[in-house]
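Hi X.,

You mentioned you wanted examples for the new student's onboarding notes, showing what a folding record looks like when two proteins sit in one file. Here is a clean example. The first protein comes first, with its sequence line followed by its structure tokens.
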Amino acid sequence: MVKGSFEDEPQSFARMDAFCREQGYVRSSKIHREIYLSDPRRTEPSKLKTVLRFPVSKQD
């Protein structure tokens, strides 16, 4: 889960990619899903909560 502005998502994906590589996994697709837990119309950007997901596979 990411807490913060939607503008911070590229950095979040970079951290997720790095963690996957450290654990021996790689992204198996550039497709991702975003699950919004906060309403951006009612929540200030720094408090938005979003679940970011992408498929991974074990690195050879």
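Then the second protein repeats the pattern, sequence line and then tokens:
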Amino acid sequence: DETRVLRLLDDNGGQLRQSKVVEGTEWSKSKVSRVLSRMADEGTVAKINLGRENLIARPESVPEHARSPFDES
């Protein structure tokens, strides 16, 4: 499952809205949420809240303005 998500991210410049992950995988919203939460906990992806939606990104693809000032660069 994680490999499929990472492939989708790689095919889309390292970041993608969570709804596009649902479309790209054809999984349920709940499955995508579970997989992405596990990946975020492991540090494989970053979940960035954009109002009512999440931006999913490879850690190296997180936009500068979305980074924590406490993150090491």
